[in-house]
Amino acid sequence: MPSKGSAVSTLETPAAPSNEAPRASTVRRLATYTTNQQFILFLVLVGVMIFFDLHNTRFFGTGEFTNLIFDFSSAVLIAVGEMYVITSGGIDLSVGSTIAVSTVVGAYAIQYLQNHHWGEFPSLLVGTFACAGVGAVVGIINALLITKARLVPFVATLATLSMGEGLALVFAKGGTVGYDLAAQNWGATGVWIFRWLTIIVLVITLVTGLVLHVTRYGRYNFAIGSNPFAARAAGINVNRHIASVYILSGVLAGLTGMIWYIQTGGGAPQNGIGFELEAIAAVVIGGVSLTGGVGRFSGVLLGVGILTVVHDGLVFINVATTWNEVVVAGFIALAAVLQSLSIGTRKR
Amino acid sequence: MTTTEREPILELRNISKSYGSVNALTDVSFRAFAGEVIGLVGDNGAGKSSLIKTISGVHQPDAGEMIVDGVVRHWKSPHDAMEAGIETLYQDSGLAPDLTIGSNIFLGRELTRKGPLGKMGFLDQRTMERQALEELEKVGITVPLSKRTVSQLSGGQRQAVAIGRAAMWAKHVIILDEPTNHLGARQSLEVLKVIRAARDQGLCVLFISHTLPHVLEVTDRIIVLRLGRVVKDSPTSDYTVESLLGTITGLNS
Question: A-chain residues within 8 Å CB-CB of B166?
């Protein structure tokens, strides 16, 4: 606390707030909502977009913008799941390999149904449930390892990461499962700059963001990540909540497996491998504290946005994709510096 | 302070508790009344922790009975004790530093919106923030903005808010385990002020502390535990720091 000899029991703020001024408090809420870090992230996102557009005018062409939004939607769900896990005080390293297993299993399910003369759309729907189910199973394994076997989340999900990678290769027998041109074609359809798939993903994203910030479930998530002892003392079933968060992350990764299936028209066992780091990077760039309890959903969306633009933009200006990781590393470092600065001003 | 005609809000009769061969509590009996601050003191291992864990439902006693507001009660879990109006503030639990003051006050008891949105768990944040401020003011805590996170408060303010939270939800008794630990002199005074305010609201406060000057300052009565037994139970005016220390250690009793 400040060493100024101020009054003990009051926390004086310059502008005396009153409960009778809802308008003023709305402004204040907006001001706190858009913390410095969010604003800087937004500027960074706009900055990189302008940068790439100056280097290649086709970058903002409608077709490419559609691709950009699509790439955003294929990365955003695992980042959302990761955000839930990290704000609750854990970490989920298994999301990448969950994409791989679910995309392979989903591909088998769709192949089987199509061989039995199911239509394209019903079999895709069942495949989606299969993918989500695989994700849920991985999530349940993580949850059991963490809440029952009392493993540290890092170790527990490292185990399921390896397991998923291995199983995806075993299931796929080394190749890619299925060749579904119809799915791929459907994946390219949509309205205006949005593909149908993109719209579905954005709806899921908005709902999960709303749940995190305005519902009891989200409140418990932050409380547990901030101080699990206080949460338990307040009567919150901490283990049950933590279990549910890992299952949510698993399901979102499973759904991402379905997105990749539609995008590539098949279930390749290398799909999604390594993407846990992309998800964690997006979350960290978005200003979420790795120690839990702190983070804004809008920040994570901006983090995913920045990574997607950098990803696609480097390709567009003909920079070797191998540079991608280096640039991403720079953004992570920038985000970390911003975070430590903002903690400094919060006089912890 | 204690008039004989009044009904105690909390009464312990011959409570005993042992862990294996260690007798943590032996025949502990006392009566506590509404609007009273009781100091619970004793050396390390005297049984203070065992006693508050028994009252708050963390442990079940091996023998004896507990009467809350005239009814014999047996806790199966801390939740039972909370439902019966006993709130406990442990040293390590406290508040969630990254949440706002209002969110902390209502943690685990969130208010939801009216209608279908509320059934889906949508929070009524505005009402919670407003009520949190009102309730904190009742125990003399003024925080201009309940929208601040707890991490922005000083140690003393945090503890005051935590006690305010307990006082808001407790119907009968609040148990405070070392609430002035790690606090500076000034911050401790602030916490003691909140304890008095909670008492004046008609709550019974069990105040556990090693800081004897604080105990002598804020309590109406002091119960001294030694080796799991109550060795003295007298009004605070009967003690001085020296005599209290003597009673705790057993060197001049």
Answer: none
Task: Write the single-letter amino acid at B17.
Answer: K
User: Number of CB pairs < 8 Å for A and B?
Assistant: 109
In words, the CATH class of domain A37-345 is: mainly alpha
> Quick check: is B127 in a domain?
yes
Cβ neighbour number for residue B214 with a 10 Å cutoff: 22
Each residue of B83-112: pLDDT tens digit?
899 999 987 668 999 999 999 999 988 898
- What is the total count of domains within chain B? 1
Interface residue B125 vs chain A (CB under 8 A)? yes
**Closest partner residue to B142 among A10, A216, A225, by Cβ?**
A10
Distance CA B96, CA B101 (A): 9
Instruction: Please provide the average confidence, as pLDDT, over all residues in chain A.
Output: 84
Whether B216 maps to a domain, the answer reads: yes
d(CA A10, CA A20): 20
B91 to chain A, any CB pair closer than 8 A? The answer is no
Report the alpha-carbon angle A260-A261-A262, nearest 5. 90
What separation in angstroms does the CA of B75 have from each of B24, B43, B80, B122, B206?
Answer: 18, 27, 6, 32, 18
Nearest alpha carbon to residue A278 among A102, A74, A138, A103 = A74
Q: Indicate if the alpha-carbon torsion angle B119, A214, B161, B182 is positive or negative.
A: positive
Asked if the structure places residue B4 within a domain, the reply is no
Q: Are A220 and A211 in contact (CB under 8 A)?
A: no
Q: What is the pLDDT of residues A264-305, one digit of tens each?
A: 888 899 888 889 998 999 999 898 988 899 999 999 999 999
Domain with B234 in it: what CATH number?
A: 3.40.50.300
